[in-house]
Design brief:
The chain is α/β, with parallel strands linked by helices. It has 14 helices and 15 strands. The protein has two domains: 163 residues, Aspartate Aminotransferase, domain 1, CATH 3.90.1150.10; 259 residues, Type I PLP-dependent aspartate aminotransferase-like (Major domain) (Aspartate Aminotransferase, domain 2), CATH 3.40.640. Helix 3 packs antiparallel against helix 11 and helix 12 packs parallel to helix 14. The N and C termini lie far apart (45 Å). Bound molecules: pyridoxal-5'-phosphate. The site of pyridoxal-5'-phosphate has 16 residues, from helix 5.
Length: 437
């Protein structure tokens, strides 16, 4: 296939793709090759991929074990597509691998093509099981781009005009750095958790279908609520008859450094967990796992997803989990994540633009502010920092309602040398940015 220049692609995208197809960086980047934590553009320039695709690369790009299996399957003419209407071994192996990391009560799976569909399935099952329609979500959350998930989205930037937003209600965000209750983490009484109950009492008839929450809010800018917050809101959800859906599309796959799922690590008693992104190490796959009670409530209906449980996708996800186990990558995420977090916190001393460094494991956010006291969002500076880092061979992500949070989510294979490169590059780029202002 012939190569296309960036200008060719820009032209075609403008003409034939939806205008919503944005790109990172002022001068768009065309990535053509990848290996481990490294990626290359069409000019052959090398970058450290510290955003892991978009929080998708768990075991490194082109892991040899996945590559070898994929080639073997193709060479053996192993069926490339078959739906759940026929039996296949790969989804079963994936379910078995996931079960090793889940509490006993979460044992019923449905595989999808994306995180959005996994969340749609969880929401549908919760409504079906409870006979209630109302779903509680959190402001600043993101759960996908389909109708039901967008209705639960807490960012105006992602929502479209005239989209129905029915049977959902929003509780205040557990955003410690910008606490909506004006509290400090060391002295607060978890007003954000109490607000979930107040929201149910004041905006519903007193019964709910579900509460959906991310244990670290990804698109929101890696907002990291404390463990106790989840203990409270799970109790509240159950008190009002709802199912607790833990959206682990970003926090799954061992990224947070304590367990494959952050819900297990934080002992969140979820009725359903959804995941995607890192699950397939870049393959298009999502999953929902739910309690038997929720699953059984669906019996007697037809429910189908053409590509859900596809053999090649489920093979990649099954192997991703095995590699995470064999290479001890959850522990690596903990150790290298702590090293990186510590290094970034040290950098805060010399760079006042860094308002907060937060996250868990190798899921780290740096909130940039123009002034540490007023906490004015440094949105333009965030874009400028990303471009300066890119020039030096480091790719970072971005998030937050105002786009002022740098997101770091590299492959879980990241080593200390690569972490040092991230720290040095951010340090140098912040210094350059400081001089420009
Ligand atoms: C927490 C969370 N849930 C759901 C989704 C939707 O996943 P997908 O884009 O695979 O549909 C995303 C995507 O960014 C996400 O971050």
């Amino acid at each position: 296939m012939k190569k296309l220049s960036n200008d060719d692609i820009a032209h075609q995208r403008k003409k034939h793709f939806l205008p919503t197809a944005g790109h990172y960086h002022e001068h768009p980047l065309q990535l053509v090759k990848a290996q481990g934590a490294l990626v290359w553009d069409e000019q052959g320039k090398e970058y450290l991929d510290a955003i892991g695709g978009i929080v998708c690369i768990s075991v490194g790009h082109h892991h040899p074990k996945i590559k070898k299996t994929m080639i073997e399957m193709l060479e053996n003419d192993e069926i490339q597509h078959t739906s759940t209407l026929y039996f296949n071994r790969h989804p079963v192996r994936l379910a078995e691998n996931l079960l090793r990391h889940l509490p006993d009560h979460l044992s019923r799976f449905h595989f999808t093509n994306s995180g959005s569909e996994a969340n749609e399935t969880a929401l549908m099952a919760a409504r079906n099981a409870t006979g209630e329609t109302m779903v509680v979500n959190l402001r600043h959350s993101y759960h996908g781009g389909t109708a039901g998930t967008l209705a639960n989205c807490g960012h105006h930037t992602w929502k479209f005009r005239a989209q129905p937003v029915t049977n959902v209600t929003s509780a205040m965000e557990p955003y410690c750095y910008r606490c909506p209750f004006g509290q400090k983490p060391e002295s607060c009484a978890l007003e954000c958790a109490a607000n979930v109950e107040a929201t149910i009492q004041t905006t519903t008839h007193g019964k709910i279908a579900a509460l959906i929450a991310e244990p670290v809010m990804g698109v929101g800018g890696f907002i990291t609520p404390p463990k106790e917050y989840f203990e409270e809101i799970v109790k509240i959800t159950h008190r009002y008859g709802g199912k607790f859906i833990s959206d682990e599309v970003q926090t799954g796959s061992g990224r947070t450094g304590g367990a494959l799922f952050l819900s297990t690590e934080l002992e969140i008693k979820a009725d359903a967990i959804t995941t995607a992104k890192g699950l397939g190490n870049g393959a298009a796959i999502g999953a929902v796992v739910m309690s038997s009670e929720m699953a059984e409530s669906l019996a007697g209906k037809m429910f189908f997803n053409t590509f859900g449980s596809d053999p090649y996708q489920t093979m990649q996800a099954a192997l991703t989990i095995e590699i995470i186990e064999e290479e001890n990558l959850i522990e690596n995420a903990r150790v290298v994540g702590a090293y990186l977090m510590d290094g970034l916190k040290q950098l805060m001393r010399s760079h006042p633009l860094m308002g907060e460094v937060r996250g868990r494991g190798l899921l780290i956010g740096i909130e940039l502010v123009k002034d540490p006291v007023t906490k004015e969002h440094a949105t333009q500076e965030t874009l400028a920092l990303m471009d300066l880092c890119r020039d030096k061979g480091l790719l970072l992500g971005k998030g937050g309602l105002k786009g002022n949070v740098i997101r770091i989510a590299p492959p879980l294979t990241l080593n200390q040398k690569q972490a040092d490169f991230i720290l040095q590059t951010i340090d140098r780029s912040l210094s350059e940015l400081g001089k420009k202002q």
